[in-house]
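Hello forum,

I keep getting stuck at the same step: I have a sequence, I want structure tokens, and every attempt I make locally crashes halfway through. Rather than fight my setup again tonight, could one of you with a working pipeline run this one for me? It's a single chain of 69 residues.
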Amino acid sequence: MHIFVAIAFILILCSLGSALYFMMTDKGRTKRMVWSLAARVGLSISLFLFILFAHWMGWIQTSGIPIGR
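Reply #2:
Ran it on my machine without issues. Output:
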């Protein structure tokens, strides 16, 4: 699980970096930056939903730290 989440996070950062690169090189002439940012949002939502699903299935557990401390 740790490896999967780390890989997903790295993919999200790569997508953000590619959007920055396209913003600097294309100067608004193409939609590659928009597609990179849309991919980043999709990856982020997918990762969040996968973590919720993994918790529901019991693949990951909470740390047991009480809320408010």
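The two ends are 27 Å apart (CA to CA). If your local run keeps crashing, start a new thread with the error log.
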